[in-house]
From TrEMBL:
Its EC number is 5.2.1.8. Residues 1-35 are annotated as: Disordered. This is Peptidyl-prolyl cis-trans isomerase. Residues 40-139 form the PpiC domain. InterPro entries: PIN4 (IPR043323), PPIase_dom_sf (IPR046357), PPIase_PpiC (IPR000297).
Amino acid sequence: MGKDAKAGGKGKGKQASGSDEAAPKGKGKAGKAADGLGTCTYVKARHVLCEKQGKINEAYKKLQDGWLSNGDKVPPAEFAKIAAEYSECPSGKKGGDLGWFPRGKMAGPFQDVAFNTPVGVTSAPFKSTHGYHIILSEGRKN
């Protein structure tokens, strides 16, 4: 797959702006990324999980043919149909719906992609310790 699934995961830490008045009170972790990605505490997502790369690529091709290649976002109901058909995760029966989950709950690459995919956007296929995934980000909150 040559593409790296991490979308700009670097650059945590120092933020070179001196505007303190916009900083949230209390918790010191917020406000890392100006685009709002990577700063939320919870993400709501759907996913497709396949053990084999060929099967996840087949599912992704359906998403591309229907929406992504036109520059359209995949409607959650349509993503759910693909998840029900292809996903090998128990969540597949619920259209791949993982609900809201906090940072730290999901394994490495899955968390990185889930917390860096903008709401409404479908990730490219990527590998984790569980197999191959596609994520549809449905929401984020602190």
